[in-house]
Structure formats: C-alpha cells, structure tokens
Predict the structure.
Amino acid sequence: MQDLLQLLLNGLSTGAVYALFALGYTLVFSVLGVINFAHGAVFTLGAYFTYFLIGGAAGANGLLAGLQLPFALPFWLALPLAGLGAAAVALLIERTAFAPLRQRSADPLLALITSLGAGVVLVNLIQLLVGAESYAIPTGALAGLPAAVRIGGAQVRSVQLLLLLVAAVLLTLLTLWIDGTRSGKGLRAVSEDPTTARLLGIPSDRMIQIAFGLSGFLAGIAGGLVGLSVSIAGPYFGIGYGLKGLGVLVLGGLGSVPGAVLGGLIIGLAEACVPADLSGYRDVVAYGFLFVVLLVRPQGLLGRVLPSKV
Amino acid sequence: MASQQPPRRLRSLPLALAVVALGGVLASCSTNRGDQQLRLGAGVALTGNGGLLGQDARTGLDLARQQFAGKQPGLELQLEDTGSDEAGATVAFRRLINAKPVAIVGPSFSQQGFAVMPMADRAGIPVIGVSTTAEGIPQIGRFVARVASPVTVIAPRSLAKAVQLNPGIRRVAVFFAQDDVFCTSESQIFQKAIRAKGLELVAVQRTSVSDTDFQIPITNVLRSRPQLVVISALVSDGGNLVRQLRELGYTGPIVAGNGLNTPNIYPVCQRHCDGLMITQAYNPSLDNPSNRSLLAAFRKGRPADAVPPQVTAQAFTAYQVVHEALASLKASLPQGTSLTSLPLGELRQRLLKTLLAGTYQTPLGELRFSPEGEVLQREFSVARVSMNPDGRSGRFVLLP
C-alpha cells in the first residue's frame, strides 16, 4: 500500500509539471491550430526572471556578468512577476513570429518554423547574456516548508506538492475563465472558427494575444517553480520539458485544456510505473504509451475529431 | 489609391545589401588567415547541456595563451564551440581540420571524442583530449592522446576513501547516466570496485543527462536502505540528484564521479553539495612553477583564494604540453630552421613523436605519456566538498 502511494505521489508530482507546461501549448494551439515551439524558451525565461527577481546575480560567463537587481523580492511575489515578464515575451513572440505570417495568410505550418527560430534566438540570447552556467533559486525560498513531507509512509518533496497544487489552481482558474467570462467565451469562439468569430464581432487578434499572454504567464510560473524544484540547468533546460509537453499535448488531445492536465498526469504516472532497473528507459515507456493511445484514439484522450473542410 | 512602386534603384537595394551581407558572412567564415604563425585548434563544449565544462576549459586555454604569449614558438589559438553533442563536435572539428592546425585540443566529452577524434586521426593531426576520461580514448588512433587520466585510475580512489572513512558501509547504491558513454564507463568501474571490496550492490538506477527530476529513482533507491550512494553523472543532472537525495532524507556519504568535479555544482546542489567526495586529478596546492603561474593568472579579478576547476587546469596543461613539445622540437631542428618551414604533415608527425616522448611539469604534476598516448600521471587526491554557510559557495577540501 505504501509502495502504491509512493508511486502515485511520484507520478502526480512529475505529471503536474508536464501538465502545467502543456497548458501553455494548448492555449495557443486552440486559437491558432499550430504549436508554439518557442514555449520552452519562454518557460526557461520564467525561471531566469524568478531567479533575478529574488536577488540572484548573473554568473561570470555572460555579457551581464555579476549583474544583480538592486532589490530582492520574496519568492511568492517574484513568481507571478516572472510570469508577467514571460507573458510579455510571449506577446512579443506573437507579434514577431506569428502575426506577420497570419496577416499575409501564410500557411499556418510556417509558424512552426518562425516560432522555432524565435525559441532558438531566445535561448542563445540567454546564454549570451548570462552564460551557460546553472543557476539555483535558493532552497530556502520556501521558508517555513520542510524539504520533504511524509504522507502515509510515502515521501515527496514539498516543492513537488506545491507544483501539484499550483497546477490544480491554475487549471481551475483557467476553466472558470474560459467557461464563465466573456473574454473566455470569445477565446472559445475563435478556437472554434476564427472567421465566424470575427464576423460576430469578436476581435480574433486580441483573443490570440490573450492566449499568448496566458500561455506565457503559465510557462513563466512553471519555469519559476521547476527552477525552484530542480535548479535552472542552463539556457537549454526547457527543451526536455518542451518535448515532454508536446507528448502530453497530443495525448490529452490537441487544444483541450482538461486533456493537457490529464495527459500530463498519465505520462507522469506511466513514468513512475517503470521498474527501478529500467528507470533510464522512462521516456520509452511514456512515449510508447502515447504511441499506443494514438493508434487507438488519434485525436487524443479528450480531443475531438474535426470534420474535414472542403 | 494606387500603390507606388519604388524606383528601380531602390528595389535592387535589398538584393545588393543581401549580396554584401553574404559576402561578409563568407569572409568571416574563412579560416585561411595567410600568416605563418602556428595554429592550435581547440574544440570544447561552450553551449548545450555540457557548456559548463567547456567554459571551464576555455578559461584554462585562455590563461595558457596569455601565459605563453611572447614565448617561442608563437601559437595562435583557434577556439571552436563543439556544442554538447556529437553533431556539433563534428562540425567544429571539420572547421578546425580545415584551418590546418598543428594540433587540436579537445573535445570536452568522451562521447564526442569517439565521434571526432577519428576525424583528426585520419587527417594526421595530433589531438589531445582535455576531459575525455572514458576507456578506449587513446586507442582511437595513433594521433590521439589525452591529459585527462582514465576513469579506471580515478574512480576507485574516492570509493576507497569513503569506505576507509566509513568502515561500517556494506550496502551501496549506484546511479549513472546511461546516455553518456563516460558516465556508463565510469559506473562500470565503480561497480567493479564495489564488488571487489565485498560490498553489496543494493540498487543500480539508470538516469539520463537531461533528467532534472529524480523523485522516482531516488524513492526507488531509498527503499533498499543504502549506506553509500555512488553517482556517475554530469553537472546539472548530478547536482540535482545530490540535492534531491538529501531533500528526500538520505544522510549517508555520497561518492561522485568526474562529471561533478567542478565548482559549477555549487549553484545546483547548493548546501546539499556538502560532503560530496570526488577524486581529484588536480591538486590546487601543488607547489610547482606551472601551477603557481596558473593560480596567479586565475586569481586576477577573482578572490585571492579562488581555485581553478580541474578542467581549467587540464586545459591549461594541454596547451602547455603542446607548446613545450613544439619548443623542444624547434630546439632539435638545425640552426636557422623554423617550425613553419617544415611541411605541415611532417611537422604534425614530429610534434606527436616529441610530445609523447616528453616529461612535463604541469599544474597536474609531472606528466608523461605512454607510446599509445595515454597520460601517465602520478599525483591524485580525494576531495570532500565543503559548502560555506551561504549555501552558494564552497571549496574542494583535499582529504589526507
């Protein structure tokens, strides 16, 4: 029983990170029908923003060597501010990598490449400015919380529980916003059919910007929390999460918010089930599971089959 | 309103600018600088997941370049970023080989070494590994050597020290990054040494160098109640593993491999780095002229007690070895014959022969090479990481 609980906690805590990451992908996909490959870079930026806002200093290997903000915020304040900073960057990406193509009615697939380019530029910019070294949000940032907690004999790090909690809260807020507000419904309308939405007076462009802003905010929050949980392992540390997030997005169903969360938790649990001596093959199990699910249900677990347009 | 076409001249302006820009890019890509100075190529990982290691190596190469500037023979250093994977290393080494260097230093990782050292070997260019410690590196080819002692020599020492300091240890757990050839090779050596000491290997967990969250493998391992944990990983994954091991309640000793042998782990595992035991191929307190000059150069602009990471010392050593071998070769030539007057192929062959035959007083102590290119180093020590109360800085304290 204790082993089962440990497995469940391991899976849920890992899956929460994937879910949080995939939520951002989902928002953009739902309105544009394309994947924003710069999302991983925005996630990474969120982690760096958090680090600098809590008073961290740049290392010795970048153009900003030794730079430190003249103030240091507590983590709980730095995290949402980092989310806002990441949202601003996501909006900038929308303006530079997506909007020009949209205005020229270019094939949406081209946005994959421009977003990939934007992501590569951002990651390299981070490296140029602050070097490739690892940065860590001090382990004492969650003052008052123990490093790990024991639940029914199973053990989990406090920061992992926090991640799970934040993912749950953000999902709830996002669902409430989408279902219960005018702008949320506008977003749904645009994701259903942008042309009709525009004819009905819904400002599609604004909705797309809102989706990018929210997606960036979520990525920033996720980056800050993951940075706290496992340190910021250089400018490339968002890439692994980006790949896993893509898998989660597809498993849950492209464009489905609950699907992103469900997909994240399932992938997390699948990884947790891998036996100890095969632990290095966790990704194989996760993606193998994804492969099998897609063979049976190509639209993902909670995705819809879209009618083909003539 | 009808749109106005810009004048023809202006319409062709973007094309002209593009041509000029392309020309500029091509010119900057050119590697033939037309001078007579000998060129030393260096390919290290400055970007990617392993960028930290390469940055340490670049520091060592820069310090060596400054140290030997003005001393004959003159060497021009051409540094290329290999990235952290084989593809990046291949591109970088191709550029270096085309630049016609007298020798190449690098790459950063054994995994890359197995991919690109054969390229240099086929081109007849001596290639000196800086931090490539996996088994089989010197055996890649005749022109391949290294200044990094092999993992077979290094790994068992820290394990032996941990057991000596904690004689009650019986149950040992091992973590290793299975997707890195060095970590895999090192872990095999560790596991062999564990069995040779009659210890019980209670868990072997495979991880990946790109992993950051180790909740699952750690809780698996802790169920087997290990008294010692041995880790073969790189900086980011290994540092996170150490931190999370401690956060999840493991209090016993931890032995780490060479991949964590750098102060760059401090920001990753922070105060939890404290107590980590790692074998050192570099002893900063070694008292010889070469190490004194390295320390003096490294401390410029840094705290007075700053200590270079091992890879920095190894990169410095690689440069020094090449420079001294060239100087020795120059001295053996007839009066008035310059090194640059020799055909490049012959110069490289003679450099290799001289380099392998020499004895060098380096920051790593006295070094020689086997005829195969394996470094023969005599001085090693085991260090324990001691973190300062701020949890962000620390030092490697050599154990007696």
Observations:
- Chain A has a mean pLDDT of 86.
- Chain A touches chain B through 47 residues (CB under 8 Å).
- Chain A has one domain: 2-239.
- Residues 2-32 of chain A form the longest helix (31 residues).
